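Objective 1b. Sequence-to-structure analysis of Negative elongation factor B.
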Amino acid sequence: MFAGLPELGISNGEDLKETLTNCTEPLKAIDQFQTENGILLPTLQSALPFLDLHGTPRLEFHQSVFDELRDKLMERVATIAEGKDEDRYGKLKELLEKSFPLVKMPSIQPVVMQVLKHLPKVPEKKLKLVMADKELYKVCAVEVKRQIWQENQALFGDEVSPLLKQYIVAKEAALFSSDLSILHNFFSPSPKARRQGEVVLKLTQMIGKNVKLYDMVLQFLRTLFLRTRNVHYCTLRAELLMSLHDLDISEICSVDSCHKFTWCLDACIREKFVDAKRARELQGFLDGVKKGQEKVLGDLSMILCDPFSSNTLVLSTVRNLQELLSQDALPRDSPDLMLLLRMLSLGQGAWDMIDSQVFKEPRLVCIVTRFLPAMLSVLVDDYTFTVEQKLPSEEKTSLSYPTALPDNFNKYLQENRVACEMGLYYALHIAKQRNKNALQRLLPALVETYNDMAFGDIFLHLLTAHLTLLSDEFGTEEFCSAVFDGFLLNSFSSKDNVHRHNLRLLLHLHQKVLPSCVETLVKTLEPSKQSSDQVKELYTKLTEKLEAQKKSPPQPDEAPSLDLGLHPVKTHTSLRSPCLMPSVG
């Protein structure tokens, strides 16, 4: 406990023990030891007996004086460090040399840590001693740890790794939220609010103004993104940069070539739309990538691969296509649309670009010449039918809703990731419009998509939320069949996440779904032994809710509305019903 005192010429307990062992008059020896090692203030000696008269132990008195002096010293250290004295760090180093031998003494340790904290460059020998001692490393300030980490990437990785895991777990948990709402979904929090998350704030603090540590974190994120293909690492890359931007850490922002691009895109994400002014700014950044600097496209593609970026870009693309439709304009003649597709393509190709280290923008020819005309024809069909429905009955034609989709639309959903993303968001758009016919037409085409994107958690999270807008339609066999048999049940047995999303939707809408269909779905969705604990937990919740519903029938005044929603509606016999299909592989 008192190790280090002899090095400073101060007596400790061992010295007192030796003195008492060798002396002939113990009381006189103790008195002398106290005089030599007490507070060397002559006027104090005559005052001490007064404390004895008041029953105040000498230990208590000395401890209070010690605590006061220590606090004053720590304040003085901070004052010296913040001052303008050219030799301020020399003074701190001198104090460090004198105090460091006592670093293991609990009462002195805060002083030593305060000195270390305020030294911009701690002597290497001292850093190694702190790093080698787990207890010292644990209590030293983050300013000291930064100096250790920048020379020890493995140790920094050990510190960062649990935070990255925590971040990913939180993002994935949000996608399986029990709350199905179009207003409060995964993309609802503003960028600023997301940057207040525990992990982002902690990483920002750990990095401080240290460019080397920032580069290490980016390298960790790139490596993990390549290893796992998890796009949430791209989100963290953007959030971290903007968190440092919020704190005005120019030392880092000025050297990150993505800073201004990310800043502009962040404003678009906040508005959930890319307007014409910001589109020109973003295009300027992309066009400004000079020959020999193409590597920056790898970082830009990772920023654009962030789901929050993709969400904004695709929403803007769908909105842009609708405006072109209303103006009778061609997609290829819209610079804003071309830019959106360019950025979408860069983001969707991020993994391939970083993995191959070939930094070239993907070509858009097939998207523009083949897929967009097909997608616009689908939009025209939906628009025409919607207008037709609003006409007075005497002006309506015998127009029936088309059931097939253009060949190129289906083909590119399966073969092109950008086209697929646009198709998926169009499905969300028509669900938001409560366009049941368009959704029933489109859902079967989503069974086979590029890299099974339609069965990814982000899309299923959004789709289940949007389907709540059509909750009354689940009272019909036709709509239940389209949603469950036509799409959702197609891969639940092989994909645990799809199983979970099916159960989430049913948990939320079971009172609206046709009772006979609920019964079949409950049997179909029963977990197997291999199912995850989350699936089993959701299934148990569902069965408990259904049992509770049976035991407490609706009140008489609610009966009519529930009755209308629960009776089967007659449909054409050619339409399949989930009630007739206990399971779909």
